[in-house]
Amino acid sequence: MSNEPRRPVRPATAMVHGGTMRSGFGETSEALFLTQGFVYPSAEAAEARFKGEAPGFIYSRYGNPTTRMFEERMMALEGAEDARATASGMAAITAALQCQVKAGDHIVSSRALFGSCRYVVETVLGRAGVASTFVDGRDLSAWEAAIRPETRVFFMETPTNPTLEVIDIAAVARLAKGCGATLVVDNVFATPMQQKPLELGADVVVYSATKHIDGQGRCLGGVILSSSEWIEKTLQDFFRHTGPSLSPFNAWTLLKGLETLPLRVAHQTASAARLADSLAADARISRVLYPGRSDHPDAAVIARQMSGGSTLIAFELAGGKKAAFRLSNALQVVKISNNLGDAKSLVTHPATTTHKNLTPEARAELGISDGLLRLSVGLEDVDDLIEDFAEALTAV
User: Fold this and answer.
1) Which of 24, 122, 142, 219 could serve as a FRET partner for 259 with CA atoms 20 to 30 Å apart?
2) Whole domain around residue 270: which residue ranges?
3) Above 70 in pLDDT, residue 5?
4) Does 114 fall in a domain?
5) How many structural domains is the chain composed of?
6) Domain for residue 282, yes or no?
7) Which pLDDT belongs to residue 200?
8) What is the mean pLDDT of residues 293-313?
9) CA angle 352–356–360, rounded 5-degree value
């Protein structure tokens, strides 16, 4: 049974109550349905469900009550008509792209991508005969020049990993619609609390729920959100037959994460803004990139399409890899990890971790120097974080 509010509610309320389905026991917390399959009252009922003539679950690879609650809560937050939850963020991106292309098709993608995303576009889909062109995402003329008659998909992440470039979603969406391509946006860095790609004209939004949505380093997950028509006609068969589905236990964990998402992102963003200003004021830091600062290169676009800064900061040390490693090792509160969006503040060196497989020339083109560090700001007291960096910089 469902017991949702009867009138529209604000995001924080939707993240506590959205999509909830209660069993006959009337449980307060969402139920965890650890089951592979479902039974039917009759053979006729089974036939009707498989034919799509009767509602209900068939197999947990296709759908599960706990997983569906997570999907519906994400739909309420994103403003999407439908969604499918996946086992990881990369499963979401791979499925969202692969389900709509075939040999001979073409993808235009922003060049600033997480390393695994670039591998999927360039190598996995390339082996299947799908061509790709990588462009400077902030250059609209580059997107337009890359369009071919066989272009089927535009793909971007914004803000980008790790240099926090911000791409004009609405402008790129207009170009995509003009050539009949689908625009897929990886919105993981902004979170649905700070940026709404569907409202800006995107067709599909993907998330690594592993990041802010869980937010506490507990499990993997992903989600694809779009219109009901796109989910049913383009994604659904691919999803059912290839099996990238999210486990019910992880879906339940992510539901718990969503309950506190608005609080966590607001706190982390406020802390990131203060810490970014502190780092920018330190002469030992050569460059700070933070979407909430007026000196960000894409400040005008950010003001139009984002409602907040970010929980991420990128900054650069003049001493290259040696200085970046020494600073990272000297931090006491902030931990070294390649994850982000966690309750704990985490620092990573992209050139030797998340983007190590790019050539030095490709990293230079993206602004990923040996002295660049990416910082994901957590829930600690921001004064402790400021002091941690001040002491580490002095030690270095």
Assistant:
1) 24
2) 261-395
3) no
4) no
5) 1
6) yes
7) 98
8) 96
9) 105
